[in-house]
Here is the input.
Amino acid sequence: MDNPWILDPLQMTLRLVLALFLGGLVGLEREQNNHPAGFRTHILVCLGAALIMLLSMYGFGQFVNEPNVRLDPARLAAQVITGIGFLGAGTIVLNGSSISGLTTAASLWVVAAIGLATGAGFYYSAIVTTLFVLIILWILNKVEKKWLRGKQLRTVSIEMPDRPGNLASITSVLAARGAEIRKLAIVQLNSSDYGQGNVRITLSVRLGKPELLLAAADEIKRMDAVSHISIE
Here is the structure.
C-alpha cells in the first residue's frame, strides 16, 4: 500500500503545472480588461496556494511516526484563505460613492481556492471551478453590461446659485431623458450679501442608457447658472 504522506515528484510537478495553467486562464481575462491584478498575479496566487497545500499535506511526512506528533494536513493550507484577503483588499478602490475592484478581489480568492484544490489532488473540482469562473467573468460580464449596468444608480453633483427655478430646470432636463431621481440633497456652499449664494445639488438617478445621462449632463452644463457638474 502506498504511503499517503509521500507524493512522487512527477505527481507534484503535475499539480503545480495544472495550478499554473488554471490560474493563468483566470488571470488572462483580468489582464485583457486592465484590472489591477492580472495574468502574473493570478498565476502566482494559484501556484503559491498549490505549493502550500502540497507542503501542508506532504511536507512533514517524516514526522508521522514521531511520538506526540499529530499532523493536520489542512492546518497550513487554511491560512491561505485568510491571507489572500489582504492581497484582495489591495485591488479594491473607493472612488466617491462607487467601489471598483471587488470582482478582481473575488477572482484572487477563488484562484487561491483552485490552487488549494489542485495541490490536494482534486483535479476535477479545480478544473470545473475554473470553467465556471471563466463563464462568470466572460459571459455574465457581457450580460451585466447589456442588461444591468445601465440600471445602476449614478450620482450627479451640480454647483449653481441658489435661485428659484434652477432645481426645476435641472429635474426637467433629466426627466425628459427618462431619468428616475431616487434621492436629492441640497447643501449651502456660501452666502452673499447681494444674493442667495451657491448650493451643491446632489441627485441619485437611475437611467436605462448611460449615454442619455451624459447628454443630460451636457445640457445642464450649458445652463448659465451652472458652475460645476460631475457624474459618478
About this structure: The CA atoms of residues 81 and 109 lie 7 Å apart. The chain has two domains: 9-149, 152-231.
